[in-house]
Write the structure tokens for this entry.
Amino acid sequence: MGKAIGSEKLGKLFNGKARCRKRREWRGFRDTWYDYTRWVKIIWMLSKFMMHPKNVKGFFRYRWMVNYLAVPMMIDKHSFGLRGNHLRICREEYDLIADDVAKLLTMIFSADQNLGAKPKDSAHIILVDENEMTNVLCGFPTLQGLSWETASSYVCCLLKGDSAAHYLDVVQQMGLPGDVCPMPATEAGVCIDDDMPILGKCAVQCNTTCDGSLLGNGVISRKLKAHGIPVFQLAVPMRHTEEGVQEYAAQEIRNAVKFIEEQTGAKWDWNAYFECAKRINIGARECSEWLEMTKTDYPQVIGNNILLYRETEYMAIAGKVPAFAETDLKITKLATESYKRKEMLAKEYRHRAVIWGVQSQFYTDVLAWMLNCWGILPMFDMLTMIALDPISENDKEQAFYDMAHQYENMIMRNRTHGGYEVLLDDLWRYCAEYRADMVILWEHIHCKALNGMHGMFEQQARKRGIHLVWVNHDLFDPRIIPRASLRQDVNRYMRSVLCEEPLDPSLEEIDDTNNW
Amino acid sequence: MATFLHILLIIAISFACLFMFSLVVYFFNLDMKLTTSLEPLFQKHYDRRKRERNL
């Protein structure tokens, strides 16, 4: 227990029988005090949230709301073992995300017809999919784009690993297939189980990449239409690297804009769009700065500190919330200070790893475990390397192509579709650029998009002398593959192939079976 | 004046107690221990609610 990184045996904080950890970390006086003040801030924010009568109503109406009891623990999980500026970066990011999600929930419950709101209360709301970019809403400052799936499924799984279990059972009880991706299946389950908030003037669904998404979007759009909410299907091309599809992709964006204008009566505002474009570019520029530091021996913004934050920023925020651009600049300042002082996130870095494939949503903090237990530095993941190119801040025609590019490269599209160049060749290019000697490759067992490439990954990693560690998981469902099994995949490789001893032996085998 | 100081003292002691209490709650994760014990009660509530389950 102390100020220095790695001074505490972190494994002793776990208790397999309980749903949470025995206590919080002691990080030395200064960092513990800082963490305590941020915890007070979060508790205050949650208390304010519960003072809103509609939010209390929503809490008792929707089963998925119970997961939000775990907000402080989610932040603790992702700041595991951090000290100094790295802890501050983490808290800046996750506190902002928590605040943004609280606003999203308040907005949902204020307009939800299940809670007594009238359709006119959501006349300014456009529904979007969970994995969908929201750039098409940047030009509508009077409208609000939101995704109830983000609140009911995606965030819940981050908060509490087994949050999707009930809805996955419901889906299968209704006879829908159990072998599809559990993320869209959970969303369909929420919809079937009468736990879907009813709101929105209209919806824009985007064709994501898998059988599960097709299933989920079908169930949801039928429900929306039954409540008189029209749905636009934004059909973005899959072969997004090909020049020939770009005009079609841009036209689809124009069609989506026209649909929103027709449904809401709002007019596209170029000034608002370009304001957002400027903030999108700030996010991309700052992230590129962090990645430049990652190329050196002293990376600063890595693993959990880059993963969920950037996803939220380029997908759900897309320049619409100025606080994110401000936080980007704060992060760069903190990271630069730490870089100059050559500060590290663990007491030793043994391997520089690129994280590739579809990450486990119920155990995103496994990256913190890898770093603290084995000294594996999780530099960045597949989804971080999206939306890093600058977009136009004044060209109206180019803007449609920029938006199309964002949609074509959205989560679960940019790597799993577009050919092996974006999945395989890019991986090896990043390994060379960032001097990675290891790839942690998520094997999401229900994702058919990546399974066909298994052999090619192995063959090419062997050729390049890169350690390829397969980690199996089932994205939203820890009942199929529990957290311990993910760790076991890493432990086995580290012990039997690399013959290494852990940095923190207390973490090698931990019992967190029942933990949220 | 004495009454005023007395009130100030009471407020200061209350804040100090609240501060110490919150520190204990924070460090021993008592907030999460409390919410984990509440979860089964909420689940029972959600189970009791009538639902229109359909595709």
Summary: Chain B touches chain A at residues 22-23, 26-29, 31-33, 35-36, 38-39, 42-43, 45-46, 49, 51-55 (CB under 8 Å). Residues 2-48 of chain B form one domain.
